[in-house]
Amino acid sequence: MSGSNPSVEADRRLAALDVDALLAALPSRIADIPARLAAHDPQHVALIEDARSLSNAQLAQAVDAAATRLRDWGVRGGDRVMIVAENSVAQIVLLFAAAKLDAWALVSNARLSAAELDAIRAHAQPRVVAFTTEASPDAAQHAARLGAHPAPNLAEDIDIGAWSSLPDETVAVEPVEADGARQCAALIYTTGTTGAPKGVMLSHRNLLFIAAVSSTLRQVSSNDVVYAVLPISHVYGLASVCLGSLYAGATLRLAPRFAPEAVRRALADERVSIFQGVPAMHAKLLDHLHTKALAWSAPHLRFAYSGGSPLDAALKARVEQAYGVVLHNGYGMTESSPTIAQTMLDAPRADCSVGQAIPGIEVRFVAPGYGDGIDAADVPDGEVGELWVRGPNVMLGYYRNPAQTHATVTADGWLKTGDLGRRDADGALHIVGRSKELIIRSGFNVYPAEVEQVLNAHPDVVQSAVIGREVEGNEEVIAFVELAGAARDSTKASEASIDALHAWCRERLAPYKQPAQIRALAALPAASTGKILKHQLRAMI
Length: 541
Fold this sequence. Notes:
alpha/beta; Rossmann fold; GMP Synthetase, Chain A, domain 3; nine-stranded mixed β-sheet; eight-stranded mixed β-sheet; 16 helices; 33% helix
């Protein structure tokens, strides 16, 4: 509209979104999505996996067949069905099939180590473990290691691969709730920042609420092709990318893992209109284009998004210049299904704010030394506090860990995120770091994200991670960097880059914020999503 303020217009559209009506219109179970798609537009392509595709009707048929197979294997409502997979048709079919039986889908990334996967399996006690061996060599290795049985095809050429059940046939069946707001749909184990896994129970309404809101805010339609490379075993890939896109009738182009050249070709040749990733994916894609001197072409791309970890201004600017579209930003966590805030499609921001809280949820920033819930004191806008969240996106709790649940969710429903941030007068949220990652140097607060943004702005850096190291009576700042192109190809160039980075930081950071040490690694340790695993870096020092 000529002369209008995009931010004001976006605020009006947000206010006009009737959350009560949206919640009332949600189906009872996530398994209703394939059936609704098939009834509405049976021939529309729902899933693409390399040379194979499934229409809406074929997806619904495959889900029914898989549910029958799971029932034959003894799965009942309240059981856990562990799905060891990478992004694939079989994985999505199994996800919906488990939900159709009121079982809990325990989505696990096949790239987890044997120790990690076995710990999750022992804690969750699934009735059945399904391995998508055709789509994932890592799933095949786990299946062989655990002595899984070959599984028959679900439907047509959809191959689960292998399955196994626990030797103990007395695994507990959890109660089945009629209300989708109380019935667990997915069990997602997260390491968080400590490395200790916790099973997050997300209800059908948790996931459907985020699917509906995220697809509405992105204005997703059946005309969209969504590049699904974020692991569906992660809540970001599950709720926003997978369920959100299918809920709106879009096509999912599935990719089992991130490969820069595969992304480049898909965006150029496969009508991809939405690309969502973590900052590391965008950074590595740009480095690939630069190092290989490749041209960029994404004729259908209309929406690019970054989430999962902090976005810095330098990367945002480089991505927008290369992609030719705005890079939107957002924030969430597994315990909030995951979305808490995101920038609006029609009100892009020049800064690295994570945008406004999504419709239907409340946020507050709580002062240090708060009490529990009602007696907690909020900080004024502009000041840093711990972010708390309340709404239909907040988890049911941690599986078999009521003490941790009680410590994380207050009696009146506030989820304590553990993240530090502030709110602008216009409602935009800024995340400055994890409360547990705050570095106190000579009495001053150092937020790792602030130092990382300075390092990431250097042309020799693909990505960085900053942690604190205790020294006698103090803490010091330690930085790890992944160098770009030629800077990482020789020891001499790497050493010169480290010296240059120290000089770069001296010009841009106060003395107490400057890294005492900068170490270059060939690759920073990362989860399958691309999120940097700082607990592994702490172990290194």
